[in-house]
Amino acid sequence: LGGFTTFSAFSAETVTLLLSQQWLRAVTYISASVLLCIFAATAGMAAGDNFLKKRFIAMLDSQLLRNDLE
């Protein structure tokens, strides 16, 4: 639900800028919003991937340690 309200606000602000003929501000707003969203998604995916890799390595190390103790 949050994504729909965020997109609605983005769309409404863009339309408002366009209707008031603030072309440069509208294009800047659209471009910055899309680029920042892509950057944030990429950073989040990289952080998640890094977290999962570390967790997987820790799990393997734990399993190997248990096997060595047996």
Note down, in words, how this protein is organized.
With 70 residues, this protein is mostly helical. The protein is built from 2 helices and no strands. Helix 1 packs antiparallel against helix 2. It starts with a helix and ends with a helix. The relative contact order is 0.06. The mean pLDDT is 86.
Structural class: mainly alpha
Distance between the termini: 51 Å
Q: Report the count of strand segments.
A: 0
Question: In DSSP terms, counting alpha (H) and pi (I) runs of 4 or more, how many helices?
Answer: 2
Radius of gyration (CA) equals 22 Å
Large-scale geometry = rod-shaped
**Mean of pLDDT:** 86
Q: Percent of residues in helical segments?
A: over 70%
Low-confidence blocks of residues? none
Fraction of residues in β-strands: under 5%
Following the backbone from N to C, one meets helices and strands in this order, namely HH
State the main characteristics.
single chain, 70 residues, mainly alpha, rod-shaped
Explain briefly what this protein structure is.
This protein has 70 residues and is mainly alpha-helical. The protein is built from two helices and no strands. α1 packs antiparallel against α2.
Q: Topology, please?
A:
Elements: H1 2-19, H2 23-69
Helix pairs in contact: 1-2
